[in-house]
């Protein structure tokens, strides 16, 4: 639910001041009472009056000519600089109850990024003075004047950072519009016709694109070290561009307030106030951040119909039709299930090392989709089973028995003659299994207590059923466990799941960045993946090859595991000598269409259970494969430091699944490149496609695991990229003569000192 | 002094093994004895033999065809992966004394960056095995095989990082040549005709330029978090390009070894071995890092004259003619004075807050140049003094009296009638002053005890002499102190110094980065400037405008202070109301011609004492103005995190001198941009030059301090840059239609929680 704030304009306050108001004691209290009566949660008003503006200008912007009284004026200014203070009629409020829960507007004529050093200096002094007063009155939020001048945005940022350290508690909110009109008009200096500052527009490219104000915000935000008391007040006065890529950046930022004047509304056919399409869409999206909507000028009667309340009603309507809000409010959706867990970092489960609690099993057994799909997969496998006679199943990792029950149901439906072994290593869950066998399953099931990697099973089975998958597929050691279970699967037997793949995408989220850095030891806290229900994030990558034409899609596959696997070399016990066949690595190239800050990687999995039945949390396939499945949130691989990525750049991500005899862990790393026109095309770069063809024919250089070497090795990238680039060179459009210039990189992320986070 | 290491080739070891050697017990010990006899400090040899190479290849690079014995082979490989171990004849040494102080070469056929996943995997296992053995034998340094494949350099880096954590003590040294021939030839895979990996050359621009190997090294170095046990072995087998900008990058890296085969030498007219010009110049430069020179093949008699010893003699000759070495060995130079202080971080003095020790005064009084120039300045001021009659001088901050003595000497030389007041606030130094007055100066000097900012001086003086300058000019609060001293300077009086300016340049230095991050609290340790005698650094900026034509020179001025100043507004005591007139800020654009990593800013000052007499530690002017002056090392402003800068990028640095009533401090910040061709030229960007002209005519918007506003405000940049860019747009060459794309930024650096580092 968004909150609503009524913006009280200076004229309105003046009007109130001029008349009697019985119910309240001051104009602001009167305005607040009226606003609450109209259904607003709180009000928003200017902290200072024109008297303050006049005094500040007289002191700080001296006339150049009449030098005689200059010294007197300058002495007055110095006296103020020495002890900054307000006179009563320079500010609008004096009482705690006037400021309680209110959003106060700092003087918007303060140019913290003015081109003149001394204007900047005195504006900063005034800012500190106004914030100190707002803080004295316990105001909740102070809205800062918008940054106007890219050239001196760093000075604006430095001043705000200083205030965050000087003023306690108060939330500072930078008011900014989604694109920057000031590039083409004069920056509003109070006195004397200062010409605009096109310098930013001229020297810094993004300033002319819709992205520029985001770039200024990001400079301020990161310069203030992502301070949690620094937020955004998005000014939607101007109609929005409908290029959603650009807008989605803001959804990864701390947007706490939306400034929406009546003038931003247009009248619909019936004359009621509505918003332009682009703004509508954005409001729907931003609702998931539950912002505070600051409505302004709603009492001016701009629109024929609906009156003052029409504006709030319309926003409420947009909220109700917001996809994310609808999903969250619909029973049975993962969004509904995840209420309260958005952007909350959880350590992944380690069911192999730890024996799960009964309550944990219960939570996951409630998933309506996962087990339905498992039963369907088992049913299909049984139905298509070629040989006559009894079919032997084994549930490896039976837990409290959900897959056993589903297996029995599937057997019943298939009408086949089958028997089920149930293997479980958790002694506590094993008691539950015994209870269910006695009460439900009887002789159709035999329970076996022990670790599937070492346990002796009386006979080899035809179908091995397991649910060992994590959010990243293999991150709960399904490959290692099934290596052991293969001992009791017949050579022509089948495994359910048959295969699973891990997928990643680069993401931006200042919230997740703060979360993963809030821990005591920032180094280690940013070195392990977390399970997270994403909300305030932005996937930075786009589809479609990028400028070089060499990039993969927005979300890309890292690697795959298949079962039963034929490639592992086994000892006499039927176990692999080492775990090295379960190491994996991937190098993936992502196209970054719009500027953004990289904070981490989103991790997903897809699994094929049997035939066309599967499980997926991959955003592009989850609804098709396993809609409303609740068991897995995505994985979040954090980066220690944010990495700035310009628009149309490329991000090359390396990720490794590593192992020793005791542990499995991931390491990840990224490099950023900017495609620029190539001066000369280079010789001797034969398209690699011929290379890999030759390789896959006589696998001289392929490892003993050709399938994996072809399907999983980074060779794929090494092959595709130059190939595509080369063809592009022969007159492919866009990428013609492009070369990648390296512009940055992240740290290498690995569990420090190998403190395993997944124990074998 | 460099050390020398003799490289023992495998054939040489084989030859030694085949014959009897009385003096030593093993071929390696024999080789070591012979090398020492020839004047080498130690030897360098391969750790493994061909037997190892053969076994590894048989195990890890399986033939694709004959699948039948594949399983046996693969079992052998798995057995090795499970328990990696050498056979005796696979390694060259077994004894501690064989490895003592030696540089061992890891098998150079190991492809840690192979394109095939499994070749990489097994190469890493072999690397760990070889390093574990080298460490077991206490070898000092292990030289790693060169990275060959940009596409998988990240995997190489990850493997090295893992080894640094797995193996204690041992120094790992990455062997790499200054430019990358492998881009155009096949990477040397032992078996099977693997085609080269041009992918890097194709997809990553720098790979074809001389810079590419540095980019690979930097990726490895930074991925290993600048580990102090990771060093460089520069391979100078190939003749060097003479573009020194590219080479100077390496001087900011931990170059511990130089690999120099006899084949790199050419014969001079007389037939003696000498090096090509480019290599000569580089060797001279790199001598300041005191590298270990690994000579190879010197006994082969490649060159007619001089025999085996000629090579070492020639390198010694280059060392003697190395400018940095010569400077360090010449009495009286700052380099000689600074021996042992190179790249050592010192906290700047705070003579205002702390009363200095007599020994500290003594050190600085030994400066032969500084006081000579002061005396000259005073002499000129006296000589040119217009009015007849007694001239009153005041030495503000007399310390132990060096400037008093110089003033008296100057008075004597000038033949003028003058009198000297000496003001000092350090009670201990004041005793020394009394002693000197009694013994040396008599009635020609009157001593005044107290702080020049508050002290009452009997009469106003004509000439005020002070030495309050720091490495950055104003960083020891000279402006604040002289504000107070102005009270007793006549309105037409002279200040010596008359003015001083602060200058910065962006620099790269992994050494200084490690130094400033070694402290306990890394955040604060990287937040204050240090005084440093620079050695292993590289100034990243170049002269000449850059691609946009908008950049200043390599080293740029931040701001200036002038004395006596007319702009401050004074109270009845003659003191400024606030210190705000001493705040400064600068925004400077630097051209970065070659890729590098930004670690901090170098800070310098220039001062004008009187007329043309001055003091300077600015690299471009110090030799002209005050050659061999010893009193000041440069200032180093560190950045918390390294920032990667591509070639031809621009760095926009903001730096502020800030103040409150109690403290003065600096804050600094940088943004990186890459100039790219502009799609469309933008309208409405009027050249700013008109703007500033209008401003300086009627200074409506100028501060009450026009001089400073013009001379110091970032307006200058805001003006110049767009102006130049605009003209460029009207057909200036090079920068035609260039726009700057932001590619990164640093954190904002400030003393945390305002813990002042300069107390007023």
Automatic annotation (TrEMBL), chains A, B:
This is Protein arginine N-methyltransferase. Residues 39-320 form the PRMT5 TIM barrel domain. One of its GO terms (biological process) is regulation of DNA-templated transcription. Residues 499-758 form the PRMT5 oligomerisation domain. The record marks 364 as: Critical for specifying symmetric addition of methyl groups. The lineage of its organism: Eukaryota, Fungi, Dikarya, Basidiomycota, Agaricomycotina. Residues 334-496 form the PRMT5 arginine-N-methyltransferase domain. GO terms for cellular component: cytosol; nucleus. InterPro entries: Arg_MeTrfase, Arg_MeTrfase_PRMT5, PRMT5, PRMT5_C, PRMT5_TIM, SAM-dependent_MTases_sf. GO terms for molecular function: protein-arginine N-methyltransferase activity. Keywords: Methyltransferase, S-adenosyl-L-methionine, Transferase.
């Amino acid at each position: 639910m968004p909150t609503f704030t009524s913006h009280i304009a200076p004229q309105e306050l003046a009007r109130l001041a001029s008349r009697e108001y019985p119910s309240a004691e001051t104009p602001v209290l009167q305005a607040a009472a009226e606003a609450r009566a109209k259904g607003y949660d709180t009000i928003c008003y200017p902290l200072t009056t024109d008297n303050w503006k006049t005094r500040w200008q007289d002191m700080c912007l001296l006339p150049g000519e009449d030098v005689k009284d200059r010294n007197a004026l300058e002495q007055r200014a110095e006296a103020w600089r020495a002890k900054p203070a307000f006179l009563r009629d320079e500010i609008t409020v004096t009482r705690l109850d006037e400021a309680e829960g209110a959003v106060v507007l700092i003087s918007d004529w303060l140019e913290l990024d003015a081109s003149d050093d001394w204007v900047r200096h005195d504006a900063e002094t005034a800012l500190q003075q106004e914030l100190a007063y707002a803080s004295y009155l316990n105001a909740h939020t102070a809205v800062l004047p918008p940054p106007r001048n890219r050239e001196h945005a760093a000075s604006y940022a430095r001043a705000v950072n200083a205030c965050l350290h000087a003023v306690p508690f108060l939330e500072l909110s930078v008011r900014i519009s989604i694109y920057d009109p000031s590039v083409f008009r004069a920056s509003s200096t109070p006195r004397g016709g200062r010409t605009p500052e096109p310098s930013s527009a001229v020297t810094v490219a993004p300033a002319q694109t819709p992205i520029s104000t985001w770039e200024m915000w990001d400079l301020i935000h990161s310069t203030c070290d992502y301070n949690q008391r620094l937020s955004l007040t998005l000014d939607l006065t101007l109609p929005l561009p409908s290029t959603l890529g650009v807008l989605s950046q803001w959804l990864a930022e701390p947007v706490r307030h939306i400034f929406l004047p009546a003038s931003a509304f247009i009248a619909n056919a019936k004359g009621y106030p509505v918003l332009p399409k682009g703004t509508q869409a954005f409001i729907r999206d931003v609702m998931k951040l539950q912002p505070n909507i600051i409505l302004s000028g709603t009492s001016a009667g701009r629109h024929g119909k609906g009156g003052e309340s029409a504006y709030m009603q319309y926003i409420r309507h947009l909220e109700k039709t917001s996809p994310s809000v609808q999903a969250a409010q619909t029973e049975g959706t993962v969004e509904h299930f995840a209420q309260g867990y958005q952007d909350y970092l959880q350590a992944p489960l380690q069911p192999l090392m730890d024996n799960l609690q009964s309550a944990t099993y219960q939570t996951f057994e409630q998933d309506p989709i996962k087990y339905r799909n498992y039963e369907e997969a088992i049913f299909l496998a049984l139905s298509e089973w070629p040989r006559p006679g009894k079919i032997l199943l084994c549930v490896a990792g039976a837990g409290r028995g959900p897959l056993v029950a589903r297996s029995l149901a599937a057997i019943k439906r298939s009408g086949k003659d089958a028997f089920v072994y149930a293997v479980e290593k958790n002694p506590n869950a094993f008691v539950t299994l015994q209870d269910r066998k006695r009460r439900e399953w009887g002789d159709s099931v035999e329970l076996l207590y022990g670790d599937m990697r070492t346990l002796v099973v009386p006979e080899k089975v035809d179908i091995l059923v397991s649910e060992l998958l994590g959010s990243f597929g293999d991150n709960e050691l399904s490959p290692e466990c099934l290596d052991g279970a293969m001992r009791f699967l017949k050579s022509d037997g089948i495994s359910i799941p048959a295969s699973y793949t891990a997928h990643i995408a680069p993401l931006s989220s200042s919230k997740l960045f703060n979360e993963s850095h809030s821990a005591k030891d920032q180094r280690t806290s940013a070195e392990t993946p977390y399970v997270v229900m994403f909300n305030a994030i932005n996937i930075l990558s786009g589809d479609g090859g990028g400028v070089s034409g060499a990039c993969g899609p927005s979300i890309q596959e890292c690697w795959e595991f298949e079962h039963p696997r034929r490639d592992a070399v086994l000892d006499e016990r039927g176990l692999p000598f080492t775990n090295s066949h379960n190491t994996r690595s991937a190098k993936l190239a992502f196209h970054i269409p719009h500027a953004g800050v990289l904070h981490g990687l989103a991790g997903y999995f897809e699994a094929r259970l049997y035939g066309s039945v599967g499980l997926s949390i991959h955003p592009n396939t989850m609804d098709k494969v396993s809609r409303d499945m609740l068991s897995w949130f995505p994985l979040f691989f954090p980066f220690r430091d944010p990495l700035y990525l310009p628009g149309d750049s490329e991000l090359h991500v390396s990720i490794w699944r590593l192992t020793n005899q005791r542990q499995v862990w991931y390491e990840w790393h990224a490099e950023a490149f900017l495609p620029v026109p190539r001066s000369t095309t280079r010789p001797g770069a034969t398209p690699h496609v011929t290379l890999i063809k030759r390789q896959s024919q006589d696998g001289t250089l392929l490892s003993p695991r050709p399938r994996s070497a072809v399907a999983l090795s980074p060779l794929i990238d090494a092959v595709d990229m130059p190939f595509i680039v080369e063809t592009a060179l022969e007159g492919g459009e866009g990428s013609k003569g492009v070369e990648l210039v390296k512009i940055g990189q992240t740290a290498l992320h690995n569990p420090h000192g190998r403190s395993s986070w997944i124990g074998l």
